[in-house]
Each structure stands twice: as C-alpha cells, then as structure tokens.
Fold:
Amino acid sequence: MCGRFALSAKTKSIEKLLPKVKIPEEMKARYNIAPTQNVAVVLNDGNNEVTFAKWGLIPFWAKDTSMGNKMINARAETLLEKPSFKNQFKNKRCIILTDGFYEWQKQGGKTRNVPYLIKMKTGVPFALAGLWDTWTDKSTGETITSTVIITTDPNELMMNIHNRMPVIIPPDKIDLWLEKDDANLPELGSLMKPYPADEMEAYPVAFTVNNPSVDDITCIQPVNSIF
Structure:
C-alpha cells in the first residue's frame, strides 16, 4: 500500500517533469502527507494544470464522504473488477505528484515497524498513478474532488520493505495516462507494474513520521540507527 508520502520539490523541478502543465508559482513543501489531506494532482479533465484533490476516493454515487477514509489505495490487479474503480480507470485518471513515499518494514521481535523513505536516486519528483472523481453534497451543493493511489507488486528494492508499492508512471508515459478517452486501455494496463528498482533508493527515517502532525524536513532525513 501507500499510506504516506512527501512533495518538497521546487517548482522548477516539477516543471521539468511536466513541461506542458500549468504549475502554481509557489507550492508549499510537504514532508508528511497523510490520507484525507489535499494532494497535488493533474487530472485528465483537459485543464492541463496542477490542482489539489482530497486523498481518499469518494465516488460520485457515495452517500457521504466517509467512504473516502478507506479508499486511499486501489489494487492494480482488480481495477476493472471493482465498481468503485472501473469507470474511473476508463475515464478519470490522474497523476499524484511526489518525490518520495513512506513504507513501514516489519521487524521480527521489534515493537514498532521501521519507517522507510523510498525515492528516486536522482531526487527528482515523479508521478504516481491515480484515479479521481467528483462528489457533490446534495444538502449543501459543496463539491469535493478526491483521488486514490494505484498500487502493484513490489520491485526488488521494495520486496524487503513491503509487499506492495505505488504504480509510478514513467515520465514519457504521463501524456498517455492523462488522455481523456479510453482508447488505449490495453497500453494503460501495461503500465500497472513495478517501477525499475535500479532507479530508486530507500533508507530508514525517524519514527516522528508516524505522527501526521509532524510535517518538516526531519521526516525525509536518513537516520543511521533508529533502534
């Protein structure tokens, strides 16, 4: 799964990843983004801009927003089997921007799992595969755009940390993923695989990342020993 991530990259770095997309001039650095919070996304809605969506998918047909608290990840293997995700995969895809995500490694005999930050060796931002939807509160008219991160099997790096990892869209496939129609569904499906491990690195970080109220640079800094 993917339950926490960061986006501290400068705007210029994001522009290199998304040269055709309108990006806010100043984006606040985030080091510990948690479910139900707003995340930076690019939707395939034709607007071609970085916007923000609530992390935790609330389908348009949901009775209330509580469903979003549970729907933070979607398994790539069953996207077309789940009614919550099937139509979104065909018509409402997005990318979620990050430059590192966290996962917790189980330690035999230890009381706490060890948090790791997983990122590109180059430190550049990258795009997670996501789905989105818009939900409207019938009583107030309020509209909420929300998103879910797609996960897949781990690559060789992640295998020692966790049994799932987010789907990462290669930079040269972002335009394909953000197409508005579903003409390339077979090719889109081929992207639902682990990202090459040799381009990534992982290291343990402090237990303070366990607390979503802690959102500073110490969350992403490596620690030599946390036992």
User: Anything to note?
Assistant: The CA atoms of residues 205 and 223 lie 5 Å apart. The first helix runs from residue 11 to 17. The first strand starts at residue 5 and ends at 7.
